Amino acid sequence: MISTVTRAIAMSALPEEVNRTLLQIVQAFASPDNQIRSVAEKALSEEWITENNIEYLLTFLAEQAAFSQDTTVAALSAVLFRKLALKAPPSSKLMIMSKNITHIRKEVLAQIRSSLLKGFLSERADSIRHKLSDAIAECVQDDLPAWPELLQALIESLKSGNPNFRESSFRILTTVPYLITAVDINSILPIFQSGFTDASDNVKIAAVTAFVGYFKQLPKSEWSKLGILLPSLLNSLPRFLDDGKDDALASVFESLIELVELAPKLFKDMFDQIIQFTDMVIKNKDLEPPARTTALELLTVFSENAPQMCKSNQNYGQTLVMVTLIMMTEVSIDDDDAAEWIESDDTDDEEEVTYDHARQALDRVALKLGGEYLAAPLFQYLQQMITSTEWRERFAAMMALSSAAEGCADVLIGEIPKILDMVIPLINDPHPRVQYGCCNVLGQISTDFSPFIQRTAHDRILPALISKLTSECTSRVQTHAAAALVNFSEFASKDILEPYLDSLLTNLLVLLQSNKLYVQEQALTTIAFIAEAAKNKFIKYYDTLMPLLLNVLKVNNKDNSVLKGKCMECATLIGFAVGKEKFHEHSQELISILVALQNSDIDEDDALRSYLEQSWSRICRILGDDFVPLLPIVIPPLLITAKATQDVGLIEEEEAANFQQYPDWDVVQVQGKHIAIHTSVLDDKVSAMELLQSYATLLRGQFAVYVKEVMEEIALPSLDFYLHDGVRAAGATLIPILLSCLLAATGTQNEELVLLWHKASSKLIGGLMSEPMPEITQVYHNSLVNGIKVMGDNCLSEDQLAAFTKGVSANLTDTYERMQDRHGDGDEYNENIDEEEDFTDEDLLDEINKSIAAVLKTTNGHYLKNLENIWSMINTFLLDNEPILVIFALVVIGDLIQYGGEQTASMKNAFIPKVTECLISPDARIRQAASYIIGVCAQYAPSTYADVCIPTLDTLVQIVDFPGSKLEENRSSTENASAAIAKILYAYNSNIPNVDTYTANWFKTLPTITDKEAASFNYQFLSQLIENNSPIVCAQSNISAVVDSVIQALNERSLTEREGQTVISSIKKLLGFLPSSDAMAIFNRYPADIMEKVHKWFA
Hints:
There is one protein chain. Strands 1-3-2 form a three-stranded antiparallel sheet, with helices on one face. The chain is globular, with a radius of gyration of 35 Å. It is 72% helix and 1% strand. α26 (452-467) packs antiparallel against α27, α32 packs parallel to α34 (607-623) and α43 (837-858) runs parallel beside α46. The longest helix is centred in the middle third of the chain and has 34 residues, at 353-386. By secondary structure, it is an all-alpha fold. Residues 1-7 have low confidence and may be disordered. The relative contact order is 0.03. It is built from 57 helices and three strands.
């Protein structure tokens, strides 16, 4: 054995003893004997992966990989080298970020590089050269010194006559594309050109993959130069098809998908060619599924990245609809009766890969392109397929309609009767899979067109679905009809469901008797949802069902844990539906069953555990404070789950695919490392935290005993869980609720509460700077606002205020940059697509508005001086054209004035000109915010803003008076302008010329029925006018209008009864001036339901 490695040792830079020892260890790694292997692993990790010896080890592995004639030793050494180069140094605290290769001395790195490159360029087996190329790539990380010799060697190797050299060189460029980004692009183009046209398929694939990596690194200004390569890239595809190279075709499609995601319009001139080629591939059923499904994915991503380009090409929609419909017929192959499908317990048909891909693709494209574009080509085919004699076509038509319904809802919601005419006859199709497809459509449209379809088509949908619950149908159809009923019930009122409850429950109770577990489970789920929707209408079925459910729970059978779980879910949802009093008959029995289960040994991954946790939470909602004695049983297991730590580990690239097969694990890439995260543990942690939050919210002071432990060991540490967004969000949400529990228990702010708040608020404020996800940043702001509400005045220190300002500044800068990136008009490579992120940013800005207001309030306006540090950013928002940004700035200004009052005088000229300009904006939201500011100026700083408020009266009157002012979309801005007029009239009364004219104009704006804040002030002002006997409102001819405006506000709940007390007593006084018959006549014009309320209000 020694002789095969003498060459490697002879060339070694290491002492012979080191070489001999390490060689024995590496050879032991290849042993079939587990014992020998584990001794070797122990020796390596304890003696060599240490601070003193890691350089020896890496040098040895590089030499063996490069020069050993024993291919097993060479291969093992290359793999081990790569693994250890990526691993964090023994002394490092940063497992994810730091790497051994960047911590070794420069001269050692130079020696390693030299060995690896010599080995790469020498005659080596193909598989070894591939492994060497991966090892070399780890030595060119961008935080290491330059390695000019490598680039020269690669350019030479790309010209080599040996295809393995060419392929391995492209492999290195794939991993470290920045090696060539500094080289003139014109020298690089021929390299890729020859790669795309290479005789070897493997080289071609490697070239395409490397090209995508290179493309990503280049600045956009260089992209146009690469466009000339695309035709030769696309022209290489048909040869893969002709040679039957399905895998190669799929690989190149995957690379093209990445390019489309980066620069879809680069393919504009070749779009028809791509549509035709993918169409040909997808229709070729002799190809393996991966080639066909990646071709479909390529078509699909165009719609997500260049929807306008797709919409302007009629072939795109036609082709996409046609190929997805073809793929959706690929079910129950060679099984016309679908016997296997009927017998399958599993409702997830995993084997039907092309069918699944097609459904998802049609769904995604419909969501991006909408019904205007897609409904016509789709229905053109569906009409034919529904009447086909081939059942698979009828089935595909149903599933296609289900997939496209949500995206095409804009058009289809107006065609519900026609759709039902098309679909419902197939509920009695001779083939069970078509019946199943029909149930699927009815369930899907019950969600996508809710709640409109529940109100208008219950008489067609419910009888059709109920008819499929009967024993004449196959079990798969019965359960799918029951599942569709869940979708329908979720958005149905109890009055819609009531007439059908008898037939629903009769049939579902029969399903409960099925001998198939999945049928029973679905029946229970459906009953639970129907009970939740039917509420107290469900009482008449309670006595039949509850004992039945309790009997199932009493059976001591460990096999049916999901069935038991569904029984608990159903029993507790029914209990919640019928209320505490009715539930009381069985509550003790159910609780004792659950306690027994809780005390039995439930495995950690048993589904029963989660059902049990959720059931306790529902029982708490039913029982309220009566639940407190159960807390010592229920809370301790939750605390254990909620204290779970981050279970993460570095894994090999080869292992990543294995980990991704497990639903419990997730793999992410950070700095070239593959990290496996045990997500199911963290998902359980989130559920447990949410349940703790639910108990804390329901029980308040009664939960206080757990607050310190939950805060310090669960909520606060969870903000550091950087690999799971849900954990951070759940932790932040818990914080203010825990504080309120402590306050509810003590009634005062004791030392423990103040200390916990200081820790929590500092952590949240720190998170504003470090949090990468806008959605989670929003949660942090929300928790701060709620925490400040609990803690009251002056609850933040000067240091915290300074840190909060920095956090807000960072959040605003990030949001601004994100919106600028998205709202460019697109360019020659990308379209401007309005993503959902706009909503995230709008929500985030809304939350930042609230947290700035909360901080201004808690500091009694003292925070004003800190805000000056970010004024320039707020001003940038104010002057922008994007309405969301302008509104944010206006809301900040309103809060500044409300809490800073006359102290804002020095800032007045910085914003007032823009605010008055915004009063006449065409955007109602901007008019609303600007009107609100003028009102706040009069209300909170009348001296400073008198010269602004009085002159704007005429503009405000225009806002409330123009012809469309009372339309839905303008109502909020009209009501804010109305309240602003009232505030100005109240503040400056005698200083206003023609004050009576303005008051009369204001009176005409009533009632105020949507904006609660505006209503509150308007009706206070109305009350004052009545008390002062103002002729404008007290004139006998106006009394009826005054009364009506108050009744409308109370009825629409813009004015609460409590707030309305003042104006109600003024109105009673006003009515006292009228003969009682006239007063009664005013009230008698209202219908009976309103009269009932009027009697209560004016009693």
